[in-house]
Amino acid sequence: MNAELALIGPILAAMFAAATPLLFAALGELVVEKSGVLNLGVEGMMLVGAVCGFAVTVKTGNAPLGFLAAAGAGALTASLFGALTLGLLANQVATGLALTLFGVGLSSLIGQGFVGIPLQGLPKLNIPGLSDLPVIGQALFGQDILVYLGVLAVPLVHLFLYRTRAGLVLRAVGENHAAAHALGYKVIRIRFLAVLFGGAMSGLGGAFLSMDYTPMWAENMTAGRGWIALALVVFATWKPHRVMLGAWLFGGVTIAQLHVQGLGFDIPSQLLSMLPYLATVLVLVLISRDVARIRLNAPACLGKLFHPDA
Fold first, then answer.
1. Based on CB atoms within 10 Å of each CB, which residue in 87, 105, 157, 300 is the most buried?
2. Is residue 36 a contact partner of residue 273, using CB atoms and an 8 Å limit?
3. Which residues contact 26 (CB under 8 A, 6 or more apart)?
């Protein structure tokens, strides 16, 4: 029994770490969609953030500067999406898919000279007396700063959306952009800022993967996490606290498949690697049965183009 309890702490710690990139990317996309914009390019922005953060850290030896570069690269990539969809009124779905393909290609090009270069991950928090607690010590008090920032971002996003005037305006734009424009709000500017925030958060999520979770650069290392983050927003019905619970759920599934492999069960490794994505499909199928609830929570103008002269 003691041996089993000893395993719980490391498993929980690994689950929280695996959930962190999903949490960053999904919270950013939630804010974007609350403004009425659907950006399917999360995967591409995560990859660009991952390679830029890694490259800057390797060149400068400064991890905080690397994370800033990752956020900036994600925001810059998102600005292309914003310019096309908000400025030129391009189709949001097609542009988002193109942004993912662009991010995959650009990250591969930038990362050619960084494949195989080792990088030291962020230091873990160590609080005497707390980090050594059985079961929960390592999971709650032995993580690095990005894990805690990811958790802290949840109440901050909630407070912004539901307790500030700016959040109220952003939600109003997502619900009825014509009415918000009639009241004098700059719909395009508000949506563009939301898109930049979503890109920065996706870039941070990608940088966490390349600079801390698996401190190395490899092509397509996000492995579909951007798509899972998109599904998380729907799964959470556009609620920040539910995004966190969903990220932990998918993080737990990811870690579970690794432990099942380690325990020696006679299950093909390819099937185990599919578990997070199978779980995503299953969750989407289950929640799609409650169409009324999804429509009630989804922003009314999600994915709809807006032109101030229309």
1. 157
2. no
3. 229, 230, 232, 233, 236, 243, 246, 247
d(CA 232, CA 236): 6
Q: Does residue 235 contact residue 246 with C-beta atoms inside 8 Å?
A: yes
Place of tokens 């998109």: 230
Q: Which two tokens stand for residue 118?
A: 């080792």
CA atoms within 13 A on the CB side of 231: 22
Q: What confidence tens digit (pLDDT) does each residue in 198-241 have?
A: 999 999 999 999 999 889 999 999 988 999 999 999 888 899 99
- Please enumerate in sequence order all residues whose Cβ is within 8 A of that of 52, keeping only pairs 6 or more positions apart, or say none: 69, 70, 72, 73, 110, 203, 207
**Mind listing the pLDDT tens digit for each residue in 93-121?**
999 999 999 999 999 999 998 988 988 87
> With contact defined as beta carbons under 8 Å apart, do 41 and 96 qualify?
yes
Sign of CA dihedral 251, 194, 170, 35: negative
Instruction: Report residues of the chain scoring pLDDT below 50.
Output: 1
Distance CA 282, CA 228 (A): 12
Contact (Cβ atoms closer than 8 angstroms) between residue 124 and residue 143: yes
